Amino acid sequence: MKKTENAMSNLAYIKNLFAKDETFTFREFCCKNDPTIEFCIVFIEGMTDKTFIHDQIIKPVTEAELNDASDINQLLNVLSKEIISAANVHQNEKLEGIIQNLLSGSSALFVKEFNKAIIINTADWEKRSISEPESEKTVTGPREGFVEDINTNIMLLRRKLKTSKLKLRFREIGTETKTRVCICFIDNIADKKIIEEVNKRIKKIEIDGILDSEYLQELIKDTPLTPFKTTGFTERPDVVVGKLLEGRVAIICDGTPVAITIPFTFVEYFNVNEDYYSNFYYATLNRVIRWIGFFLASSVPAIYVALITFHQEMLPTQLLLSISASRQNVPFPTLVEAILMLFVFELLRETSVRIPTVIGQTISIVGALVIGQAAVEAKLVSAPMIIVAAITGITSFVTPKMQGELILTRLVFLFAASFVGLYGYLFGVIGMFIHLASLRSFGIPYMLNIGTLRPADAKDVMLRVPWQKMRSRPKLVAQHNKNRITNDKETGDKVE
Prior knowledge:
This protein is α+β, with helices and mostly antiparallel strands. 43% of the residues lie in helices and 12% in strands.
C-alpha cells in the first residue's frame, strides 16, 4: 500500500498532547493477514463503550482481508463502509475535529503514519435515569423529567411530537466547554422572526463556557438588569411540548435538565402544567389562588407597616388596641421589625434548601416555631409581625418560580410604605406595572393579554376555559398558524 507524505502525524501529536492523561487509551494492533498494516485506536476510558470497541472495531479490523486496498483512501473506505459495524462512522483529517470528537466520547482509528482517521461514535457514560422533577411535581399528568443528556431530552420531546415539522438546530457555545445547544420549534407554528432573533442572540454569545441553561438565560434576555425573567424555564418535557404547540421556541442545553422557552410573558408565572390536566373549574380556582398569593406575598408587610405607622384610623379599634398592646416594650420600629422577621424567614428557607431534605424540613418547622415564640417572649418582635411574616412566607411558595422577584418587590413596597404609608405602597405598585409594561420578550409585550378587553385573549390568563373554547393560539406568538382546533365541533366545518 502506497503511503502519503506526512509531517508530525495527528496520532503522534495527540499522544504528546495527552501524554500525562491516564484516561486516554492508545490501543495498537495489526491485521492478521497483512502485519505490515498497523492500526491504533484512541478513546477515553469512562466515556466510551469498551465492549463495543473490542467487538465491533478491533476484532473485525484484525480479521479483515485488506490485501486488495491499493492506497490509504481505499483502505479507509473499506474499513468505514464494510468492516466497522457502527451507526455513526465518518473520516476526518483535521486535528481539531479529531480531538473534539475524542473529547465527546467518540473513538478515532488511525492507520499508522497517516493523518486521516476514522471517527466512530462509541460514546457511553453513566446517565441519570428519567424521573419526575422534584421542583415541578404534579398529581396528574406525566411523571417524566429532563436529564443532563441532551440526546435523551430530545428523545423525550420526539416521543410526544411525532411530526416532521419539529425542527432542531444545533449550536456549540463556549470556547472551552464546547457545549451543545439545541434550538427546537415547530416549523408551521413558530414565528420566523422569533426564531431568527433567537439564532442571532445565540450567535453573539462569546464566553469560555456554558455549564447551565441559566447562563443562556442571562446572556440572551432582553433587559439584563430587570429582576423579572423574560425567558421561561422548566424541567418537564410536557411543558416544553405545550409551549412549542403555542408557537414558542425551546432551547435545550447539554449538561442541564432545565429547558428554556421563548418568549415568556408575565402570566406564565401563574400557569402550571397541571392546569391543563384537571377540570377547568378547579384549574381556574387554583390560578385565582396563585394571583392572590402573589399579592399577599409582595404586599402584606408593606400594607401592615403603612397601617401601623401612618393610618391607624383605618383599623378597627379593638384590633388597633390589640396590636398596640403586643408592641409594648418592643424596642424596634415596625419597619426594622418587619425586615428582621423577613430576613429570618428567608434564612430558614435557604437553609432548608441547601441541606438534606429530611433535616431541612425539620429545621424549617422547628426553627420557625422556636425562633418565633422566643422572639415574641423576649419582646424583640410583636406577635402580629410573626403572623405577617408567616402569611408572607407561605404565600410566596404558591408561585415558586418568582422567589427572587418576590423578595425584591416586597422590599421595594416595604420601604416605599415606610416613608409615606399607603401612598408610597401605591406608588411602588404603579412603578412596578410601568416597569413590567415596558418589558419585551423577544419582541412580544411582557404583559400580553393582561387587561385585555377581548374575550378571546382572556381565555387562558386568569381563567382556564374548556379546551373546546380555546380554538386559537396566543395572539402575537403564533402569527402564521393561529388555529389550535381545526374543525368546528358543532358544524364539522374546517376552521380557516
